[in-house]
Design brief:
alpha/beta; 12 helices; 14 strands; 28% strand
Length: 317
Amino acid sequence: MNRQTPSVEAEHLTKRFGTFVAVDDISFEAERGEIFGFLGPNGSGKSTTIRILCGLLRPTLGRAMVAGIDVVADPEAVRQHIGYMSQKFSLYNDLRVAENLTFYAGLYSVAKKDLPGRVDWVLRMAGLRGRENTPTSALPVGWKQRLALGCAVLHRPPILFLDEPTSGVDPVSRRQFWDLIHEMTGEGVTVFVTTHYMDEAEYCNRLALLDRGRIVAMGTPADLKSRYMKGQLLLVECEPLGPALESLQGAPGIKDAAVFGSSLHVVVGDASSSIPIIREMLQGKGFRVKRIELIPPSLEDVFVSLTSPRQAQKDAA
């Protein structure tokens, strides 16, 4: 594969299931050694896109190239250049750790002479050395995750697809998993990952934000936070929270408002002029206002701003 060729490329990719549009005319590129993330809620088209790129599902319209190979014209060739880790950690629980690795080495046609070295590399990378004979069913979820990753990269693929790989995994194991991913990209592996965890999205070099099958924004995490907020963001701590949110939504000068934990995040045009107005309005309606201050936006704020029902109504107008 030419270094100048994108590792993954999609042009006007569309997938319909009857009248339902799961993936709606999306285009993007992922470069060599890049962590490219798809961020979106369940049902936004993330997994469907990955299955298309892995040659497991034919697109209805559009074109996809992986490792310079057309996924529709030659899906088998694509699968020789990729590793794929699904949400369910496709492991055989009745096999031991080493047996799972040997089985997947056979699926990926790893040469017999290379097998001992590859298995040792995976055991070392995943922190599973000494547990070769442990039944897979007995592994904690975080260790199963690392074993599944090891099975996916036994053949040293240049491109790795991870479909919500940390779903249901504890925070410490998730962080350890991402440390492994960064090691791989440091060696030139391209990683394409889907997630609905906002903190994980910060680990990506670039992101595409998906909503209802469409890409609503794309860029680096920092770029998304600076470019796509429709104003300035205020943290509003007040009681009671639910009625306060209802009072703020649709009020003059309020672009958007949503609950974040035990407070409200409110998007306004100008923080300095809006803070006293919001305070006076809430206090005038009997709400107890504890704090109002300007804060930097998170990716979750950006995503909520771009995918809120009010934004959808504006887009449809």
